Amino acid sequence: MKLHPLSVPYRTGSAVARFAWVLVIGTVSTSQLDGFGALAAGALVVALLGVLAYQVAYVRRFDYELTDDTFDLASGVVSRRTREIPYRRVQNVDVSRNVVQRALGLAEVRIETAGGGETEAQLRYVSHDEAERLQREIGRRKRGDGETATDPDGTAPPVEDAGERLFAVTNRELLLLGVVQVDLRLLSFVTVLLPVVLPSVSQSFPLLDLLRAAPFVLAGLVAVAVVVSSVAAVTAYYGFELRRAEGELRYRRGLLQEYSGTIPLDKVQSVSLTENVIARRLGYAAVEVETAGYAPGAGDGSGSQSAVPLADRERALSLAREVEPFGEVEFERPPKRARTRYVVRYALVVAFLTAVSLAVVRFTGVTPPVPPYSPLALLVVVPVAAHLKWANLGYALGEDHFVAREGFWTRRTRVVPYYRVQTLVGSATVFQRRRHLATLVVDTAGSQGFGATDARALDIDADRADRLREEVEARFRTSLAETRTARRNRRSGRDAAAAD
């Protein structure tokens, strides 16, 4: 099978648009020289024809096929590349299309595989109907279904009508999403910009000195950040819908760039309930699902996907249990001596900031608008900050899941099924050992190395960490054996049904 014929003009236009600024600068520069204007125009035409010829060759030499066991691709203009992707390794089949692609009836298909660090296969571009057909067919063959499900009239059901709808974002939640997920990078940008801009403003407008102007500028920046974040949330999650059907979650979202895809439930490594400080105050939370491998749009190369961008906390908790049926959780907190450790840590940070402030005054002679000892005022909030960090830590051993919670500004509660555990790592820094503390990291196939992306029992008693590692390992072995037995029984049932 071939890509859509309209892929040629669209790919050509996209390639030209990426380098348009180079062509414009080159044309303008050479046109200023006598006799080179026509040469530049000719070079531009040759470049456009070269791009067009390459895209024609690329599309003509691109083939794909759905076989019984694999999805096969053959591509390449200069060098030929063939790939066979077993259906059992497929994690997600995602379809995306922007405004121009929707107008042309085109769509891009991305196939992600388990353990992959990048997209395994891209089809740029096929018709939208073909994209949805591939999404359904690959999912069906991955599950091992015998025949394609059809409506009474004999046609395949559209993806958006298949399955039980679990969640649809409301207009209120869409607007709140912009408030909850304010892009703080704008605030950090202005923090750097203010010391540069305000002195010049103060010279022209004496009344607008640093202390008077800064609060108004910061308030205006927060307002702009909320508006920008709200617009970004509306365009990214407009029409967000989550459905469950045939052992997978199906989602659709987006206004300018529309996305639809699948999250296979049998590939889920962990589920996270995420609440930043604003969302907690409003009673809202987000649900993230982590699969083994790369997920499009994740940004960090992990397999983390937003299953629910924002919902009432109880509703979000109920949806998380739809993915992983965990029960009520009673968290065990670290010992109180861990809180003392945080007090010392934050106090040392305040002391460092004070030393830096004094050093600047001493060696540069600059007179700051506030006394150089002013960072010491932060010592008042050190005990509060240490308590909040300690109070938001916790872990729990459920019947079938390990649950860990951490974070104050953004609190994340991770739920890991025991049979998904890959590695258990106990660690203790020199500062932890002084207080007989340790950390247990529960790593899964979806985690990209050890660190804050894993479920962690942080700063717990060192002896308890050793016992906890043994308990999780024992439950892992039991759960893995039960899971393998259940899979064999399901496979035997399917084989018996196929034989009948």
Automatic annotation (TrEMBL):
InterPro entries: UCP026631, YdbS-like_PH. Keywords: Membrane, Transmembrane, Transmembrane helix. Residues 60-138, 237-321, 390-471 form the YdbS-like PH domain. The chain crosses the membrane at residues 36-57, 216-240, 343-361, 373-391. It comes from Halosegnis marinus. Residues 136-160 are annotated as: Disordered. This is PH domain-containing protein.
